RNA sequence: GGUCCCAUAGCUCAGCUGGAUAGAGCAACUGCCUUCUAAGCAGUAGGUCUUUGGUUCGAAUCCAAAUGGGAUCACCA
């Protein structure tokens, strides 16, 4: 509609004002609630050029539109704004079109290029936590939104299944897991522990011994015993110790950390882990079997968690498969002279021309680092999917620098698609008690949190729900839908880029700006429709302002999907649906529907309700949130 | 120290491609269940949009600086 008005004005602008006005001069905005009108033209930009007052311009424009655009019956000028009104029939027709389209808002399937969305990407040593929930919900939702916008989407994750950290937990399990009466070490079957939790436990165990050994070494050094340690290490130790003298507390603690690093490198346990990594890279059968077994435990644990989260993947990538390709790429870059090699054989890239630093790509012992693997994985993916036009990486904003460098290197290696890769960088989730830190045990475990949220939904629903005639499975499912819906909405309603605070009490709240608030509206509408007889919309029906407001909000849905897709922001959808539900609730609470005697009115209101429910369901689906028919 | 991100009501967040009197929710206070699900609705109160400059007819929104908070700059991932 606004496009129509705009083109009509531009076409006749010379005639109207005596000059040709450009596209950007015709600005629309939403009409404020206090004023009558369906859209508003901002007159200020035209004032200067026309050399007339806003009233004069408004009159000229308003009369012009009334005469030339069929739909426009009325206008009013307030200040520098021209409020234009459309007739009722315009809005009933809009509603009728929405009603006829069961996929309202969704673009044609696969009408846009293929895109890959990566999310989750866990470390196999650490059970999933609250931060992963934000990551998974975000990634899954963005994938859904892009699909709704017409893209072909491949959902993926990279599983970080190799490297020194994996060897750490393998080693700790071998060394410290107690044997039971059958002579077996701990495993998920004989302990009943979730596999990822069991492996995580041994990773922590490694760290404990690791730190203890390092402490011992420092004590030795402090006592002057340097036998058996490399000269360069001792020299550094002495240098740092010397530097501590006369420094303030902060500087001393920094130097102490450096000394600790030195000591850690000398611990027997780390050396053992490094040996294990070398054996793994050499495909030692014993190590390989252990690795496969323990990873298997982790994956079954993760799958259980993903299932509860309600997220899925189309394709998995394992770093153990892609790191070789990464190394090849580095060698290729080295030959081309994009990278350089230091005397100790480590490979680097110089990014100082781009205002960045030098970055390591291959260790002196020839093993690969994070960046090497990511290079390999990216290229691998474009080889696997020839139609692919870009990858979206859902990764926390602490890795902004990493991705900047990654994309830059890919570009330097000559991959043109590097430009269409995007780091969907999201902010950390803070707790009221401060930052989550695994070392301090302030991590919120994903499984625990989901269980709590569902349990809480169960208690609340028992108090106020409408569950008559539901069997136990239906009830359990409902608790899950409400609990998870609340949690997902809580994490997704905030702009992904921003750091957010996770308040446990608010996350299970059912009132106000929450998931259950939206779900409740859907359940009420379903109940309403269940009680209604057949109805059919008549496009000649009169309507009140609250009905019209709702139709206006419904009409926005396709544009909202577009915005959310372009900004990779599920929060746009979340806030839109909340607005819609608020408008609907006002209408529902103040206007009678089933008892309306005027049949045309009743049909309009029911059609409206039905389509509100449709859009609620569709938009919540884009957030990965289910909506119940009863609650 | 270099680079990047953030700052809106007591709290959590919208609004930011410049436009009318800056909006929600929570918390506080008032009302509304004998009519479609009160997980709701109606209302009261709460703001120098961190500060200072600049651009503009017009700035929460754009630019610059300051202040405060965070991240990052590893032969960790």
- Fraction of residues in β-strands: 5-15%
Widest β-sheet, arrangement of strands: 7-6-5-11-12
Mean pLDDT: 91
Number of strands: 14
Structural descriptors:
four-stranded antiparallel sheet; globular; RNA-binding; five-stranded parallel sheet; alpha/beta; 631 residues; Gyrase A, domain 2
Commentary on this structure:
This protein is α/β, with parallel strands linked by helices and 631 residues long. Among the domains are: 2-86, 2-Layer Sandwich (Gyrase A, domain 2); 161-213 and 267-309, no CATH class. The protein is 57% helix and 10% strand. It is built from 23 helices and 14 strands. It has helices spanning 2-17, 44-50, 54-68, 88-100, 130-148, 164-176, 188-191, 195-222, 231-244, 249-265, 268-281, 285-309, 319-336, 370-384, 400-412, 446-464, 472-492, 504-507, 515-531, 545-555, 557-567, 570-590, 599-622; strands at 27-29, 39-42, 74-78, 81-85, 112-118, 151-159, 315-318, 340-341, 347-350, 358-362, 388-396, 422-426, 429-430, 500-501. The strands form four sheets. The chain has a five-stranded parallel sheet with strand order 7-6-5-11-12, with helices on both faces. Helix 5 (130-148) links the parallel strand 5 (112-118) and strand 6. It is globular and about 95 Å long. The two termini are 39 Å apart. The model has no long low-confidence stretch (mean pLDDT 91). The protein binds one RNA strand of 77 nucleotides through helix 2, helix 15, helix 16, strand 14 and helix 19.
Task: Give a brief rundown of this model.
With 631 residues, the chain is an alpha/beta fold. It contains 23 helices and 14 strands.
């Amino acid at each position: 509609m606004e496009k129509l008005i705009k083109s009509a004005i531009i076409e006749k602008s010379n005639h109207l004002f005596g000059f040709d006005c450009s596209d950007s001069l015709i600005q629309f905005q939403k009409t404020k609630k206090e004023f009558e009108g369906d859209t508003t033209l901002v007159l200020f930009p035209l004032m200067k050029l026309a050399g007339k007052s806003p009233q004069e311009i408004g009159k000229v424009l308003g009369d012009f539109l009334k005469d030339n655009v069929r739909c426009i019956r009325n206008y009013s000028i307030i200040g520098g704004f021209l409020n234009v009104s459309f007739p009722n029939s315009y809005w009933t027709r809009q509603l009728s079109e929405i009603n006829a389209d069961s996929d309202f808002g969704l673009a044609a399937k696969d009408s846009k290029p293929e895109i890959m969305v990566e999310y989750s990407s866990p470390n196999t040593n650490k059970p999933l936590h609250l931060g992963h929930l934000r990551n998974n919900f975000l990634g899954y939702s963005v994938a859904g939104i892009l699909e709704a916008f017409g893209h072909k989407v491949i959902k993926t994750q990279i599983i970080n299944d190799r490297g020194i950290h994996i060897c750490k937990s393998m080693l700790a399990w071998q060394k410290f897991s107690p044997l039971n009466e059958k002579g077996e070490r701990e495993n998920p079957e004989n302990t009943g522990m979730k596999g990822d939790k069991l492996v995580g436990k041994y990773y922590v165990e490694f760290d404990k011994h690791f730190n203890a050994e390092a402490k011992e070494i420092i004590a030795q050094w402090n006592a002057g015993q340097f036998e058996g340690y490399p000269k360069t290490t001792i020299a550094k130790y002495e240098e740092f110790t010397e530097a501590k003298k006369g420094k303030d507390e902060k500087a001393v603690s920094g130097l102490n950390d450096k000394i600790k690093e030195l000591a850690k490198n000398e611990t027997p346990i780390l050396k053992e882990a490094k040996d294990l990594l070398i054996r793994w890279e050499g495909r030692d059968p014993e190590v390989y079997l252990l690795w496969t077994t323990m990873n298997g435990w982790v994956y079954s644990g993760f799958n259980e968690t993903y299932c509860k989260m309600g997220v899925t993947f189309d394709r998995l990538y394992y770093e153990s498969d892609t790191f070789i390709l990464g190394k090849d790429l580095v060698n290729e870059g080295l030959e081309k002279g994009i990278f350089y090699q230091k005397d100790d054989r480590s490979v680097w890239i110089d990014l100082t021309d781009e205002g960045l630093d030098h970055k390591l790509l291959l260790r002196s012992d020839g093993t690969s680092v994070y960046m090497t693997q990511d290079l390999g994985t990216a290229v691998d993916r474009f080889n696997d999917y020839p139609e692919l036009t870009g990858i979206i990486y859902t990764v926390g904003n602490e890795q902004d620098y990493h991705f900047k460098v990654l994309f830059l290197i890919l570009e330097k290696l000559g991959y043109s698609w590097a430009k269409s890769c995007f780091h969907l960088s999201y902010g950390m989730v803070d707790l009221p008690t401060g930052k989550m830190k695994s070392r301090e045990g302030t991590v919120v475990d994903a499984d625990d949190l989901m269980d709590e949220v569902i349990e809480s939904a169960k208690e609340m629903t028992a108090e106020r729900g409408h569950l008559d005639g539901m069997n136990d499975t239906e009830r359990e499912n409902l608790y899950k839908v409400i609990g998870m819906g609340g949690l997902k909405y809580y994490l997704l309603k905030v702009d992904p880029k921003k750091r957010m605070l996770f308040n446990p009490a608010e996350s299970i709240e059912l009132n106000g700006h929450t998931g259950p608030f939206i779900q409740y509206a859907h359940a009420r509408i379903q109940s309403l429709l269940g009680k209604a007889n057949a109805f059919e919309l008549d496009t000649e029906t009169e309507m009140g302002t609250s009905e019209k407001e709702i139709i206006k909000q419904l009409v926005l849905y396709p544009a909202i999907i577009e915005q959310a897709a372009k900004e990779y922001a599920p929060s746009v959808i979340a806030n839109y649906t909340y607005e819609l539900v608020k408008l609907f609730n006002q209408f529902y609470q103040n206007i009678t529907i089933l008892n309306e005697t005027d049949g045309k009115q009743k049909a309009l209101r029911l059609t409206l309700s039905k389509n509100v429910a449709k859009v609620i369901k569709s938009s919540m689906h884009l957030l990965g949130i289910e909506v119940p028919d009863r609650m």
